[in-house]
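Obj: model holo form, ligand = phosphoenolpyruvate.
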Amino acid sequence: MRKRVIAANWKMNGTLEQANNLLDAFAAAPLTVNENKIAVFAVPAPYLILAKEKLSGNPYLFVAAQNCYSKKSGAFTGELSVEILKSIGIEYVVLGHSERREYFGESNAFLADKVNICLEYGITPIFCCGEPLEIREADTQNAYVAKQLEESLFHLDASAISKLIIAYEPIWAIGTGKTASNAQAQEMHASIRSVFAGEYSEKVADSISILYGGSVKASNAAEIFAEPDVDGGLVGGASLIADEFIKIINA
Ligand code: PEP
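Output (holo structure tokens):
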């Protein structure tokens, strides 16, 4: 059975005091997590160790980096390596978020290298894909997302690809308050799953968790997560409000 995953993406937000308060709230909250449903917190890099410590009392809460570099170590000032992440016990990394693609020019090929090094170090990539508004308006989103997957992931064998988590995030829905309809989310998630089935097998496709991201809130989480191919969410803005994100985890 594939896992349900609710992931928080704090992006470049929160002072140390705010991070402490949020993490304390999540650590103390009654959360409906278990071995089949986990929560992952992608916090700013300076808070990774703090988050690991604060959430350590619950075995179903994990910490993720929001990015990593494609090389093991070396003269890459300002970058974060998987070797460093592994050494502090980080098990997940968000890769290919649309903000990284747009503002930092991350290409599908560069992301393929990042995926490879994460897997080499036993770190699970939460691999983001999703189309901009003009692609959605032209109704070519399925092919656009399939190409992102193909160019970054399809060099992997079946056992490696099964380790990934995919996050489908239509760019026009990120931070805009505009959520994809349940039907739009389900349609794309089913399309992504069928692309994996075609490239690998039904069994592989069925094993991969596909999260939806884009203005998920407590008020819409349950209905989106109820779609058969939606296995959880990647949540930005609402993950910075403790009560809101606790409701989303429990939705
Ligand atoms: C995100 O950052 O991945 C995201 C989906 O943001 P928001 O929930 O704020 O739209």
